Structure prediction request, 282 residues.
Amino acid sequence: MPLYTVTTRKSLPDQKREELANLIMNVHCGLTGAPETFVNVMYWENAPLNSGIAINVLGTVRKGRTPDMNQTLQNEMAAKISDLLLLSAGEIEMSLFEMPAQWIMEGGEVLPEPGEEAFCEWLQKGHAE
Amino acid sequence: MKVIRVMCSIQEGAIGKTNIKRLEATIPKIYHKHFGAGYKLVFMWLTIPYGQAWLAGKRSTASSIQLPVEDGLPSDRRHPFMAEVCAHWQEITGCNKDEIILASTDFSHYEEFQQVMLQRFPANKQKVVMLKMLMGFGKGWLKKGYLNNSITL
Prediction:
């Protein structure tokens, strides 16, 4: 968590997948302060999308951030994706779905709430990057 | 009997049929031990082709499991269940603790998430996509003996 599900009509070249996965990680972590360790990106391809849409990005993120932060995250990520893939803003669908951190287990531990990573002993000891 | 769809996303070739069958036998026992016998777990395995999953900017080898529980289940009941599922998953598959992501959300939240996933597709194509996915799972079952499909539509 977060898990970003990227859905496209056609298969993206491997290089673009890697660049996009890194872009998503960098934007997410840069804005939220979340550790990079658990940023997942999954590509669903050959999918039908709404008319005029080239890519749909659905981010499943930990609940607890402000609506302003989530909006900024969506806006900035969509802008950077637009630059990377040479798409117009109207060709990108971007949304977030919030999930309580306490319902997720990764690295054998329950995830900390957003903003509490620094107080999370197991994360600081072995998982923080 | 309440039917629970367990969605498991796994890397292509990472878990063989024998271990999938062991997981399908073991996890319901854990579920029943923690929450009672009134649940039937139906496993749906989504295979992620090579290069289509990334973790921390690198190719991912992790599996993710969506295994919902009753709404409002307190953490002191939810977390021991989750820990036991993760431990058995590691034991059976031989993966390390960083290669399993378990989401045990409330049922209602899980259903909401499935709807959001479906809404990625145009309204007039959602039924077609659902049908295609279900047929894919059926074909996968005929071929491998368990419900499986690829995330590439």
Q: What stands out?
A: DSSP finds four helices and seven strands in chain B. The domain at 2-150 of chain B is CATH 3.30.429.10 (Macrophage Migration Inhibitory Factor). Chain B has a mean pLDDT of 96. The CA atoms of residues 12 and 49 of chain B lie 5 Å apart.
